[in-house]
């Protein structure tokens, strides 16, 4: 769970990257980093915390018109500053920095081999393996060394690299994670999601295609297809939960996909009720779709506090039970005496849903019908979304009826797998390229085999 951004040819590269990362903050809040190049050398800055924690003075120390940045939520490696990206190194051929979104499935094997061969790692992140492989490659041009390195790794990667005078963008052959190209006046920009382009007023050009490498330097932009083609497997959970609804990724509006998921959900799991309430923000667009399809009025029966940051320190045991109340509060006026449909995108462990149902009942809801705009989450992700182990995923060992009993709702309806894909298809625009998706978190069908120990740290967001 990370966001990446890059810019080539802008006099305020650091500031533009700061803004771009700001729009991608939802993709990771543990650490943030920016590396610029002034043409002679790279200037890195990384810190724990949010992009907004960079001061004006810190940005002013990042000169040059070429930059990449990263926001991180760790899916592999600990949450410490030495794992913050971009990683920047100097080696025999100059300097290089890397920003990675995704997860490599053979990183541990590769790392072990590299260490046996004498490599010394600075971090515990899987992304650093790529840097070591690049440093060892024998080719002269950086793009060729990157290809040699990437041919040895397996898994999910959307990557941005800079050297002193080049930017290289690559997406893995299956295209698990998004990556887009845009134009900002005379400069090129790259971002995980198009919402970053909106903020800096850049024009979206297209996505970096799965398996494509884009190189930008003083000669202009070139693109290569260095890998053997694979059927694409864009992560469907980006649509369901992870991407921002104002982004267009995978050739479709994320908002439209979520609305369509909600419509489909209303068709598959109708219920007599008085009001449709979203769990904000994750369930909002799907709840709007559910309300439109069912004709049941939509209302904001839960209000979210936007000030519960990742930096939140767990309160002492005595007040810990406030839990979800720090983030959500019920609006009694809307809920009292009502039969409520509450819509969220997923149930992970079930703890949030259980607390929400209780909160709605305490606010006077007469009935609570929980609707989930995706199929049951039964399997962990090994390609860059942070989900807990199987044993912690409630749907891996419980039926929807059992889950309904646990969360104490009157009824529970999950969208079917077919319904989810119909909604994804329904939201395509005439220009969308129909691609296959990765749905391993719902089906356990992993498109790339994973190795034991792939995920060295399995933690969950304090959602
Ligand atoms: P839980 O209490 O564990 O069932 O969490 C359910 C909530 O987590 C839902 O509101 C989801 O929107 C949210 N969620 C789903 N996937 C993730 C994820 N990978 N990281 C953080 N939150 C998530």
Please describe what this structure looks like.
27% of the residues lie in helices and 24% in strands. It is α+β, with helices and mostly antiparallel strands. It is elongated. It contains 15 helices and 23 strands. A hairpin with a 2-residue loop joins strand 12 and strand 13 (220-224). It folds into two domains: 2-231, Glutamine Phosphoribosylpyrophosphate, subunit 1, domain 1 (4-Layer Sandwich), CATH 3.60.20.10; 241-423, Rossmann fold. Residues 310-315 and 454-463 have low confidence and may be disordered. The protein has helices at residues 13-23, 56-60, 107-116, 128-136, 142-150, 195-200, 236-242, 254-268, 284-294, 332-335, 351-362, 394-397, 400-407, 417-426, 440-443; strands at 2-8, 31-37, 42-48, 66-72, 87-91, 94-101, 158-162, 167-171, 180-184, 187-191, 203-207, 213-217, 220-224, 234-235, 248-249, 252-253, 275-278, 302-304, 328-330, 339-344, 367-372, 411-414, 437-438. The two termini are 14 Å apart. Adenosine monophosphate binds at residues 241, 279, 282, 344-353, 385-387, 460-461, 463.
